[in-house]
Amino acid sequence: MKTLITGGTGFVGSAVLRKLLDEGHTVRALVRANTDRRNLSGLPVDTVVGDLRDRKSLDRAIAGCQYLFHVAADYRLWVPRPFEMYEANVTGTLNIMRAAAGAKVERIVYTSSVATLGLNPDGRPADESTPVFYRDMIGHYKKSKFLAEAGVKRLIDERELPVVIVNPSTPIGARDIKPTPTGRIIVEAASGRMPAYVDTGLNLVHVDDVAAGHLLALKHGTVGERYILGARNMTLKQILTELADITGRPGPRFRLPHNLVLPLACLVEAGARMFKEDKPLLTVDGVRLSKKRMFFSTEKAKRELGFQTRPVREALSDAVDWFRKNNYI
Questions:
Q1: Helix (H) and strand (E) counts for the chain?
Q2: Predicted pLDDT of residue 194
Q3: Is 197 among the domain residues?
Q4: Tell me, what CATH number does 144's domain have?
Q5: Is 121 within the bounds of a domain?
Q6: Are 91 and 53 in contact (CB under 8 A)?
Q7: The 3-state secondary structure of 145-184, one letter per residue
Q8: DSSP string spanning 189-231?
Q9: In what order do the strands lie in the sheet containing 2-6?
Q10: Confidence grade of residue 254 (pLDDT, cut at 50, 70, 90)
């Protein structure tokens, strides 16, 4: 089973790649020339240099492959040059899908995101069928992932592309090298630098469970369907309190109103532009997103894929341990 994976050097992709190796796949990883390859260190993986914006490099990479896992994505809540995110997440996704169609790949698993899904106004956990529109998307990441998923669905309909879509919620765990926005929250909290919080919520899940869900989607998923890969819905206060218990650091003490945090986010972003920083800790889109609780149901994935998850406390502990061992904390 020769399988091409994109994003294998990243957080979720490296977990999927390891799961593929565990299940006997011969893995080829598409990597950019200047990418950080620490997550591939010591693994029996064939690497091929290419770029999602370069269709010819994708045709070469996917030649002879039976399966494709397209996990790569530009995941940032603030981008100084938004067009780069749309090139990676929208144009790049359509490029690799068309390359897969040309190579007659038997099966594709596309990693979308819960960012593309609708939310219930009353706070009930949303599912794959909750209504959603492009106008509901906040920020360039959500907009780009929404457009990418819509493009994949068109290719499924028009070219009968054999794609199963998975929508991970908020993965946490080891090998979050950048780290992701959620990983940064864990680092700051574990370092004792988050005494305050806003009233928001996330669905957390161990990154290795997300990886297992990808393989279940390959085996049992229905073409054209999408599956939420998540675990536990938690408020930010609950997350920070759990981290305080794990780390021995003080828990959150103050709840900040969104209307107070928003002007501060504007100032932080202005400073990031002035000093050419690429990862401001506080962003306007992040504050706007935090006004809604991102709670989701995983019943469909459990029912149709056999998806299972471990306790989220274990995921938080694994994340803290990895960040400590790698000197982020």
A1: 12, 12
A2: 81
A3: no
A4: 3.40.50.720
A5: yes
A6: yes
A7: HHHHHHHHHHHHHHHCCCEEEEEECEEECCCCCCCCHHHH
A8: HHTT---EE-S-EEEEEEHHHHHHHHHHHHHHPPTT-EEEE--
A9: 46-49, 26-31, 2-6, 67-70, 107-111, 163-168, 226-229
A10: confident
